[in-house]
Specification:
The complex is a heterodimer of chains A (175) and B (196). Chain A is of the alpha+beta class and 175 residues long. Chain A is built from five helices and five strands. In chain A, strands 1-5-4-3-2 form a five-stranded antiparallel beta sheet, covered by helices on one side. Chain A starts with a helix and ends in a 5-residue tail after the last helix. With 196 residues, chain B is of the alpha+beta class. In chain B, 33% of the residues lie in helices and 19% in strands. In chain B, strand 4 and strand 5 form a beta hairpin. Classes of the chains: A alpha+beta (175), B alpha+beta (196).
Amino acid sequence: MGGMLGRIACLAVACFLAGCADPVEQRTRLDTLPPQPVAGKGEAVAIAQCVYDRVLTKDCQDEDQRLLLTKDMAGDIVVMCDEHPGYAGLHPTSSIPTVMGAALLGGAIGVAAVSYQADKEASDTHHYPLYSLTLRAKPPGEVEGRVWALNKPDLGSKRLAMMAEAFGACSPAPK
Amino acid sequence: MAARQLTVVFPVVAALALSACAQRLGAPGQAPPLDTMQMTGTAKPVAQCTMEALTAAGTCADIDYKLGLSTNDVTGAVSLTCYNITPAAASAGAMFGLVGVLVGYAVGTEAPADETNKRPPRFTTVLQQTKPDALDVSFWVHTSVSGPESSIADIKTALKTCEGKGLTVAAPAPAAPAPGASPAPAAASAPVKPAS
């Protein structure tokens, strides 16, 4: 019982110091929409570039979001909208209450804890994609892939449709 | 009187608004480039040479910023970026003045100047090979008080000194080759890549 209370108190302090929004936990809770397969003709890189150009000015425009054109570990080509606190830069203003709280609570130690947390967040090298299109080349000029999106209320299915539509418009890849 | 106050307040508000908007322009993946240009050369050597020229000119050479090169796996484009390497903790600590900054520098680590650094850069220049000897160069820069044009002009100046870098043969040959000229000796630098 005492241990439980201690854990709760510890969590409360941790939340107070660092903010409770854990991106990984949040993402797990949101779950993903069922991926949608796509197939078409053309060259994978050209299609990916075309989808990237189409989406760049349409969506993924928040401060902490970037549209990326990259490869995944399997070597497939990925166009994704990545969300990361680091993209928004080093603006501690969003956590003024947290920092103030930390200062009241523990002075220099509190500041150090918050600073450490800020450092950890900004230097997290993981990607946190919101939605993506994965492409793989099939031998005779064909491409197959899938679109995927995080199940954000309302937005998730719209993004899935947007990516599928962009793929359709870009394949066969324009010369 | 009010008009006089307004002339003082307005530039301050404008500057604040500008600095708030600045975030949107500094990196690929946020918006199309602010400016583009064409030049000759191959991406890697030109980027390397430009990085040296910018460093020599003192661009992106202050304590919190550092130049770095990275290559996109998919497009093969080479990016020359002015990365923000301030320890995040130092800027979080800035709210507490000098002591906070010092604590921040003590507990924080300098961010790397490579593609794992996700912070808004001061500027990014992307060099994409379009032909074996031609490059498309795109510019993204932060809006600053002096305007994006001035930072882009600085980068362009550095790029111009690197025109044609990485080519095996002297690029333009205006004069007809001398009759009976022996084939040019193989240059020591990297061979021109075949068009993909």
